[in-house]
């Protein structure tokens, strides 16, 4: 991924910043220019809660080349406490411990080396909550 | 709008066609289509060509011009259409609308993809998902459909064996199709014991990486009447879009764009699911066939799997699904797939599908889907 794009995504990826529509209250992650519910164009920045649960998941055995050193890994759709859903990896747990409903928290992690320039790319992963 | 007929069809074999360049695949399918139609190429006014990603697969853009040139059609209006794996269906709809509008009389709907040309197919295909919020996190296309499968198993009681039976059934159909990439039968154990790609999906739950092209020729019904062929007309055309990220849609076990496109097509056609004799659906993964049959309205949620186990959707069953072999066995050259489905429905309705002929087929449906369901096209064809 080229640097302008990477730079643009940092508030979402590093700080979990979403956009809340001031018109109807809908929360968008990632932030949007136009609200998909009411077409409003004014938003306030909102940090997402970092806890949630797994909605659905898979264990990836045949990944793209830049993720090959992490296989097998779990991908999941996670629903956060405020209802926002996102896709991420689930780390630090054996793949068979992740299932629908597994409680997780989002943590900041290195995701991969960008395939062309090998820039290290960061973002969120989910970690299984043990307590 | 004018009523529109299909008056000819052509297709290459699907497969790993190492010695065939992209441009020749399209030229072959188009030439076969024009011979089949019995229409001189000088009468062709326009072409709509579905192709997902020639830029990534082959390093070639400006596609409509190079393809029509090598097909001997230089000079006509030609437009490349992209909607990921639904590119072919979208091209067919555009061609249909051009004829229906009265703007042109002879219009080609074509589709082509050459996926075996040195590029990383997993990377190229993943561009049909959300690059920043899905692919960035290591998600592949098998991974997205695996998440749909797990949600479907959890919400609707579908089992892995139900999905595996889709692969066995479609390979049994494809074994009867000389143009199929893998024209051979497989056993349930082959599917069950294959290497996992993205759990629960294994290698034999996934459609292959394919090269191929398909083309049909459209004309107004008034022109088609003079040709003395079975009259196959387009009764309904439905097209819908949706969020491309699976997590942006309300229920990951459902694919709403399929239902939205279907409702539009059925409303235009003035028919219901019970009137349809057979269908070609977008089985890019085994779970997708089950989901699509449910979203199209042929089965309630969770009922397509049991129906598959009971043999209802096999040739000889109550409602044959994917008599061509589907994407699984026939192959999935992504831009060609939607048009290839139309070729199969046309051949079936014309009574020339050979060993895989659905008896007394009068109304057929084709459903072509992009990505994990970010776009969908449904077409209903009738013979009279």
Can you tag this structure with a few keywords?
heterodimer; A: 131 residues; mainly beta; OB fold (Dihydrolipoamide Acetyltransferase, E2P); 2 domains; five-stranded mixed barrel; three-stranded antiparallel sheet; 1 helix; 10% helix; globular; B: 384 residues; alpha/beta; Peroxisomal Thiolase, Chain A, domain 1; nine-stranded mixed sheet; two-stranded antiparallel ribbon; 14 helices
Q: And the CATH topology of the largest domain in chain A?
A: OB fold (Dihydrolipoamide Acetyltransferase, E2P)
Can you name the CATH architecture of the largest domain in chain B? 3-Layer(aba) Sandwich
**Largest interface (C-beta under 8 Å):** A-B, 33 and 35 residues
Number of domains of chain A: 2
How many β-strand runs of chain A?
8
Q: Give the biggest sheet of chain A.
A: 5 strands, mixed, barrel
Class of the largest domain in chain A, according to the CATH hierarchy?
A: Mainly Beta
Binned, the helix content of chain B reads 25-40%
Distance between the termini of chain B: 19 Å
- H/E series of chain B: EHEHHEHEHHHHEEEHEHEHHHHEE
Kindly provide the radius of gyration of chain B, computed on alpha-carbon positions and rounded to a whole number of angstroms: 19 Å
The N- to C-terminal Cα distance of chain A equals: 37 Å
The description of the largest β-sheet of chain B is:
9 strands, mixed
- The share of residues in extended strands of chain A comes to 35-45%
What integer value in Å does the Rg of chain A equal? Answer: 16 Å
Secondary-structure-derived class of chain A: mainly beta
Total strand segments of chain B: 11
CATH class categorisation of the largest domain in chain B:
Alpha Beta
Strand order of the largest sheet of chain B: 3-2-4-7-1-8-11-10-9
Average the pLDDT over all residues of chain A and give the rounded result. Answer: 93
Coarse morphology of chain B: globular
């Amino acid at each position: 991924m080229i640097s302008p794009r990477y730079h643009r995504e940092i508030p979402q990826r590093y700080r979990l910043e979403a956009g809340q529509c001031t018109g109807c209250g809908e929360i968008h992650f990632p932030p949007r220019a136009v609200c998909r519910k009411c077409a409003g164009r004014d938003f306030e920045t909102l940090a997402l809660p970092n806890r949630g649960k797994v909605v659905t998941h898979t264990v990836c055995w045949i990944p793209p080349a830049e993720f090959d050193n992490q296989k097998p890994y779990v991908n999941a759709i996670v629903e956060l406490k405020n209802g926002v859903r996102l896709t991420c990896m689930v780390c630090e747990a054996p793949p068979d411990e992740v299932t629908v409903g597994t409680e997780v928290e989002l943590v900041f992690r290195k995701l991969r080396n960008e395939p062309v320039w090998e820039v290290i790319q960061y973002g969120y992963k989910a970690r299984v909550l043990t307590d | 709008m004018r009523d529109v007929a299909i008056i000819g069809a052509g297709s290459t074999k699907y497969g790993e066609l190492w010695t065939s360049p992209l441009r020749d695949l399209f030229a072959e399918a188009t030439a076969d289509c024009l011979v089949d139609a019995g229409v001189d190429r000088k009468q062709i006014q326009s072409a709509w060509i579905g192709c997902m990603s020639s830029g990534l697969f082959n390093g070639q853009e400006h596609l409509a011009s190079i393809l029509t040139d090598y097909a001997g059609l230089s000079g006509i209006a030609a437009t490349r259409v992209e909607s990921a794996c639904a590119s072919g269906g979208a091209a067919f709809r555009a061609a249909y609308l051009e004829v229906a509008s009265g703007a042109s009389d002879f219009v080609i709907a074509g589709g082509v993809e050459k996926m075996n040309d040195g590029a990383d197919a997993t990377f190229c295909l993943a561009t049909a998902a959300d690059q920043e919020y899905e692919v960035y996190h290591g998600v592949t296309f098998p991974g997205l459909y695996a998440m749909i499968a797990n949600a479907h198993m959890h919400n609707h009681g579908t089992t892995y064996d139900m999905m595996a039976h889709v692969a066995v059934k479609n390979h049994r159909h494809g074994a009867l199709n000389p143009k199929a990439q893998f024209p051979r039968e497989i056993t349930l154990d082959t599917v069950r014991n294959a290497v996992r790609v993205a759990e629960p999906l294994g290698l034999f739950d996934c459609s292959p990486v394919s090269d191929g092209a398909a083309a049909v020729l459209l004309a107004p019904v008034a022109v088609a009447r003079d040709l003395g062929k079975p009259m196959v007309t387009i009764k309904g055309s439905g097209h819908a879009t949706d969020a491309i990220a699976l997590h942006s849609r309300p229920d990951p076990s459902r694919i709403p764009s399929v239902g939205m496109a279907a409702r539009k097509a059925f409303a235009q056609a003035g028919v219901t699911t019970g009137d349809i004799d057979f269908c070609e659906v977008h089985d890019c993964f085994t779970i997708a066939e089950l989901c699509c049959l449910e979203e199209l309205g042929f089965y309630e949620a969770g009922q397509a799997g049991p129906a598959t186990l009971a043999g209802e959707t096999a040739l000889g069953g109550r409602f044959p699904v994917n008599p061509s072999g589907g994407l699984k066995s026939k192959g999935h050259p992504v831009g060609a797939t939607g048009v290839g489905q139309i070729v199969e429905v046309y051949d079936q309705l014309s009574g020339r599908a050979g060993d895989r002929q659905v008896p007394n087929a009068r109304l057929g449906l084709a459903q072509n889907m992009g990505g994990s369901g970010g776009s969908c096209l449904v077409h209903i064809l009738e013979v009279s």
